[in-house]
From TrEMBL:
The keyword Transport applies. Required for the activity of the bacterial periplasmic transport system of putrescine. This is Putrescine-binding periplasmic protein. GO terms for biological process: polyamine transport. Keywords: Periplasm, Signal, Transport.
Length: 348
């Protein structure tokens, strides 16, 4: 129990706060509470789920895996399902924050492509269903920036004309995984010399960075607030659809791969509604609505045939066959603490 909870209990405030919470830890008949990244849920898909099941959906959002972990581990309750990235699934499981819902036994599990049925972060498919997957690199407005766009060097060792015009994510794990890929170093790195080099690289980049924020990445590039931005492939597609000069870069060093996953937090108010949603997502026509909305790939066989050409045939959606894609693993505590120290110094 946290110190904050002890204090609230001692003053009798915890009960009153719980009553005031919009998502109190009690089952709401016919309601599904979702906790997801900002601007990352297809309205069309949710409406289809509501129409087919009669279950009303509510959504709360966060801006990074670290934010979601901090909230759930602090004892926040009331969510039936949440979306988390592959490298954070083991962390949630090891901390006892997710419920075993037996995904492998669900009727639509058979629709998952074989390579995604046993994922390294959930080998027995106990806890999670794939949401969508994509890559992380950077996008750039080629109408303004005329330099080379074949390497991560443009992002991490930028030219003088990009000073104050670069956007980076607000998530330390995502910034550092891409930086380590550029450096040619191992992920989850604890080597003191590598960490010193990582710190120096990010500190040297800092004067060129206008903002560290994972929200609003598309809007900043379309408006011209940033010229170059660390970016997810689907968000880059959305930006290009609004501004044709924006290009998503597939660097020669490779890109970071990721898969977001749908899981059920321990103590979910309505477990049955959560299971219905997870099974719903493994239907190709359903998950295609999420793909259409976000521009990302799916783990469900046959979903791509339901996509419009501007998504399914887009360069952002179809990485080169020879692109090196590194799925960042879940890092041990030693690496996480080292990253936290670097990030804290960087943000001061």
């Amino acid at each position: 129990m946290t110190k904050l909870k002890k204090m609230l209990l001692s003053t009798g405030l915890l009960a009153s706060l719980t009553c005031a919470m919009p998502h109190a830890a009690f089952a709401d008949a016919g309601v599904l509470h979702i906790y997801n990244w900002t601007d990352y849920t297809s309205d069309e898909m949710i409406k289809k789920f509501e129409a087919e099941t009669g279950i009303k959906v509510t959504i709360d959002t966060y801006d990074s895996n670290e934010t979601a972990l901090a909230k759930i581990s602090s004892g926040a309750s009331g969510y039936d399902v949440m979306i988390i990235s592959n490298d954070f699934v083991p962390i949630f499981v090891n901390q006892g924050l997710l419920q075993d819902v037996g995904v492998a036994s669900m009727p639509n599990f058979k629709n998952l492509a074989p390579k995604w049925q046993k994922r390294p972060w959930d080998v027995d498919a106990k806890y999670s269903v794939p949401w969508v997957w994509g890559t992380t690199s950077y996008s750039v407005d080629t109408a303004i920036y005329k330099g080379p766009t074949d390497s991560l060097k443009a992002l991490f060792e930028p030219s003088d004309d990009l000073k104050g015009k670069i956007g980076m994510f607000g998530s330390p794990s995502e910034v550092m995984s891409l930086a380590l890929l550029y450096m040619g170093k191992e992920q989850c790195n604890t080597n003191p010399a590598d960490l010193k080099q990582l710190d120096a690289l990010l500190q040297a980049q800092k004067p060129f960075v206008k903002v560290y924020n994972s929200d609003g990445t598309t809007e900043r590039q379309v408006s011209g607030e940033t010229v170059m931005h660390e970016q997810w492939s689907g968000k880059a597609l959305a930006a290009r659809q609004q501004k044709s000069t924006i290009k998503y870069v597939f660097p020669k060093e490779g890109a970071i791969g990721w898969m977001d996953n749908v899981a059920v937090p321990k103590g979910a108010p309505d477990l049955e509604n959560a299971k219905k949603f997870l099974n719903f997502l493994m239907d190709p026509e359903n998950i295609a609505l999420q793909q259409k909305s976000t521009g990302y790939q799916s783990a469900v066989t046959g979903s791509n045939k339901f996509l419009p050409p501007d998504v399914g045939n887009s360069p952002e959606f179809n990485p080169p066959a020879d692109l090196k894609i590194v799925f960042a693993p879940s890092c041990p505590e030693k690496a996480t603490r080292a990253y936290d120290r670097i990030w804290t110094d960087l943000r001061q």
